[in-house]
Amino acid sequence: MCIQFSAEEIGEAIFRPGENGDADLLELVDQLLSCDVAMWVFTDTIADIYGPGEIADCVRAAVSQHLAKPLLSREQRRELHQLCHNLAILDIQQLFAMSIDHVGHTMQSDPSNLRAVLNELEQFPDRARDGLPPIAVFVAILADAQPAEVRERLRAWVAELVGPGMLRMAVLDGIRSSQQGPRETRGKYCAIHLDPDDIDPSLWYLSVYLQEGQHPGEAPTVPDEIPYPRELRARIDEAPDFPPQAETGPGEPLVAPDDVPYPEEQVRARIGDALNSPLLAGISPSQIRIEFFLPNILISLPVDLRHWQQNFPEDDQATLVLVRHRATILRALGLDSEAMAASEECHSKLRTVYGDDDEEALSAGNLVGGAYRGLGRFHDALELDRDLYDRHVRVFGAEHPRTLMSQNNLALDHFLMGEYGKAAELDEAALQARRRVLGDENPFTLQSEDGYARDLCEAGNYREARNRLENTLNRYEMILGRIHPSTLRATKQLAIACRKAGDYGQALRLSEETYAAYQSRLGRSHPDTLSAAGNLVNDLRITGNLAAAAALADETLEQYRQLIGPEHPFTLSAENNYAIVLRKAGRLDQATRLSEHSFTGFGTTLGRAHPYTLSAATTHANNLSAAGDRAAATVLLEATYVSFKQVLGPLHPYTLSCAVNLVQDLRATGLEEDAARLAEATMDRYVEALGPGHPEVATAGTLAARSECSTDAPYT
Question: Is the per-residue pLDDT at 66 higher than 70?
């Protein structure tokens, strides 16, 4: 009976055990485990038959150890199967391929068995390009081929699955509309899809399509490839730096998808062949664009420009646009040196040939600024982005979406320079403008919310920052899904705010989740992954797991040194945090060497008054004090305390933390009266700044603990 009910619900036959006992049972389990959904349906059926109790609980527990919970509830799956019974069937294999991100994946189910196809789709993760579940995309397109009553019921099922988020439903509407009827051709573009092999990540599945219709947008100037639905494009004036949802299906293959993964050299060659295809002959470069879909781990793929340069000079705008696309890919990879070289040349040529206010020149300039930030050249980025912002205002107006993106870049520059008040002023103004122009639920509005909360956190408003980030993260998850780059960035920032607000357990949970997600998507050595690792080091240390913190800190520091060099601010930040861990672990000599280099390095690269330099000075003073050199620690802390008051203000938690440490060293060196006066001026303010329940407050001023000024590498 159990097998009969499960087979009906799954929609495919299940092996029936005969008389071979355990052998037959193992074969049954193997079949069920080949499809996660089938295993859960079988488990639910057992629970139906035996009722609540030990048997059902044991089976569920055993399955939970090996399989993640399915996307759909049992009721959702049953309703969908009922709705899809005897539907008019489209080209199921093509629809399946369009619905998933995994290029080259061959559908395992029988196309004539729609229930089995739906079960297979349920197992795929959310699509990287728009955060939508593949099964929702599949059903949304399938619905449009059905009679009105069935169509509306299927659409209602999709709406319930993806939630009330306006953007996600609008994206789905755009996907559905893209499948309906012939449209006037409005140009062509190449869509290049890459997907890493599950077994060997050095191999890649590849497909390249020539598509007709409205191009889905230029490559973004930041690596967050947020999809934008056509229904909302009028609200951003069709700005080319905002990639809307594609309007066409797969198109004509230049490199057809197959089941063969290729090494990088062959991938490059095949893309080059595709761009030199006879199908592109005679098409002006100004009429064709190139779009990369790079789910999961990214890879550098230089675009073969031979086809374009046969008939067009190197300084032709269309050729330079292709160079800018390549720089965007390199920037997304974290290869900032290569991205800077490509984007600087492109930016310079576009300005020389087409003028300072050329739109393509402005886009290339944004890439140069981003590369400067990634390389730690914060002052250069600030100077460039000031000029770019003025040019955006002149060309587009103060509240155009492209201008507001430039304003956010400028705010980030001020943030990296330690000017948190100025950063907050710019981000808050951009936030208000985006609310007016784009609406509260637009992803770019949420990006401004995220940036403003980041500024507030570093300015010392930990609790307000946390509240804002929790709200922003909830909306990101609803609109874009949990693994979208913007969602992960907000999660990482929320973890920092939780730690600084004193909720160490929640901070650790969020940091572990974010670090794992970045590792899975981008690999262990990507800058975003290393930044998440640095946050996790701080959370492991503050929750007492010094062994794990030290191991991860050592690995992260070494990767930073190899990737961006020993004097990059983010490498120095990793040194500062590692030095704190080493002191806590009793490894004072190594801790002091690291903190001295971090302090000196920050002073050279960012200046003696930068908050990162002052944080490193506090760490070094703490190490000197722990090593017994209280006099040197006192001198360093006195100077640092004065600078903190000037830079961050007398009420900033880091200013007060420095004062709390100074009180300890003054007492230890016999300067009781000075210590008493400083303690009287500090302790009430410290409680007010952090809150009476903050763990730091409980130990402040005792000789048993030091207040730490850790640093957190932001995104750039």
Answer: no
Q: How wide is the angle at C-alpha 168 spanned by C-alphas 441 and 146, nearest 5°?
A: 145
For 393-424, b/e burial (b = at least 16 CB within 10 A) is eeebeebbbbbbbbbbbbbbbbbbbbbbebbb
First and final CA of the chain: distance in angstroms? 59
Per the CB < 8 A criterion, the answer to whether 206 and 194 are in contact is yes
Q: Where in the chain is the domain with CATH 1.25.40.10?
A: 460-565, 579-716
SS3 content of the chain, % helix, strand, coil (to 5): 65, 5, 30
- Check whether 6 has a pLDDT greater than 60: no
Residues sharing a CB contact under 8 Å with residue 50, sequence separation 6 or more, in sequence order? 56
The single-letter code of the amino acid at 138 is F
* Beta strands in 586-690, from DSSP E residues, in sequence order: none
Q: Answer whether 247's CB lies under 8 Å from 178's CB.
A: yes
Distance CA 278, CA 135 (A): 36
The pLDDT-based confidence of 95 (bands split at 50, 70, 90) is confident
**Greatest extent of the chain over all pairs of C-alpha atoms, in Å:** 90
**Residues in a beta bridge with 196:** 204
The whole-angstrom separation of Cα 1 and Cα 45 is 9
65 Cβ contact partners less than 8 Å away, ≥ 6 residues apart: none
What kind of fold does domain 460-565 have according to CATH? 1.25.40
Measure the CA angle with vertex 236, ends 235 and 241; round to 5°.
160
Angstrom distance (rounded) from CA 526 to CA 156? 40
What gap in Å lies between CA 146 and CA 87, rounded to an integer? 7
Tell me, rounded to whole angstroms, the distance of Cα 607 from its chain centroid: 30
615 CB neighbour count, 10 Å cutoff? 26
DSSP string, 176-216: HHTTSS------EEEEEEEEE-SS-TTEEEEEEEEEESS--
Q: Residue 236: pLDDT above 60?
A: no
pTM reported for the whole predicted model: 0.64
Q: Residue 18 pLDDT > 60, yes or no?
A: no
d(CA 205, CA 196): 6
The band of 518, judged by pLDDT with boundaries at 50, 70 and 90, is: confident
Model pLDDT for residues 20-51, shown as the tens digit of each residue: 444 444 455 444 544 566 666 667 766 666 67
Least confident of 90-99, 325-334, 379-388, 642-651: 325-334
pLDDT score, position 282:
57
Strands 188-196 and 203-212: antiparallel
CB 535 within 8 A of CB 492: yes
532 C-beta neighbours (distance < 10 Å), count: 29
Shortest CA distance to 507 belongs to which of 328, 695, 336, 353? 695
pLDDT digits (tens, 9 = 90+) for 543-597: 999 999 999 999 999 999 998 899 999 999 999 999 999 999 999 999 999 999 9
Q: Which two tokens stand for residue 657?
A: 């933390």
Element at 246 (helix H, strand E):
none
290's enclosing H/E stretch is strand 288-293
Task: Provide the CA 673 distance to its chain's centre, in angstroms.
Answer: 51
Topology at the third CATH level for domain 579-716: 1.25.40
For residues 670 and 657, what is the distance between their CA atoms, to the nearest angstrom? 20
List b or e across 561-570, with b for residues whose CB sees 16 or more CB atoms inside 10 angstroms.
eebbeeebbb
Alpha carbons within 13 A on the beta-carbon side of 445? 18
Q: Each residue of 102-157: pLDDT tens digit?
A: 544 667 777 777 877 887 888 777 776 667 788 888 888 887 777 777 778 888 88
Q: Which two tokens stand for residue 513?
A: 């989740």
